[in-house]
Task: structure prediction
Amino acid sequence: MTQVKATNVHWHEGNITRDERWKALGTKGATIWFTGLSACGKSTIACALEQALCNQGVACYRLDGDNVRFGLNKNLGFSAEDREENIRRIGELAKLFADAGILTLASFISPYTKDRDAAREVHKEAGLDFMEVFVDASLEVCEERDPKGLYKKARAGEIKGFTGIDDPYEAPTSPELVLNAGETDVAACVNECLRFMADRGLIEIAD
Ligand code: ADP
Result:
């Protein structure tokens, strides 16, 4: 539970509403939250999706696990508490991006259900769309891919608390979308995301 330390703070309303901002900018914000084991394909799919969206002139931005830990979250490690705070900050960050009118592609292992649910909740409270996408690939497939050699290190005991090896991954029970990234190629996964986003009225796709 996050300790609230700020006192005497008051929300300062702007002069325009979110709808007015989105309309003026010709945009629509929402958060697409990719979760799954390390190496399941979250970043690869989000990068390809960002490219496809940019080609269509859709305002989008990627928030990515490691990247966020270079700056905003560089003071956090991988203990359960730090993972919780990592996801809490990212949930808040994604909410701000979405509020600004950006289709925000958040790719984080985010192994714990309660942390993902908390990210969903802050969006809900703000009246913003939050879509959980489970990038589903088995541990065997992920370990086989191992693009950063992390599973190898975890198996050798050089990394402790690695998700899927000696730390749990709680798969989503009711995600908005499941991508079978263990068997479906990247382009097909991206197309599924685009179709799904079009169905939600977030983008238009040419037939
Ligand atoms: P994550 O962000 O989930 O840790 P990455 O995207 O960094 O995973 O790595 C996934 C690896 O799996 C990449 O080397 C990618 O090329 C490969 N890959 C193979 N098939 C797929 C697929 N269908 N979707 C995503 N990545 C795939």
About this structure: Residues 26-199 form a domain with the Rossmann fold fold (CATH 3.40.50.300). Helices lie at 18-25, 42-55, 65-70, 80-100, 113-125, 139-145, 150-155, 186-199. The chain is about 45% helix and 10% strand.
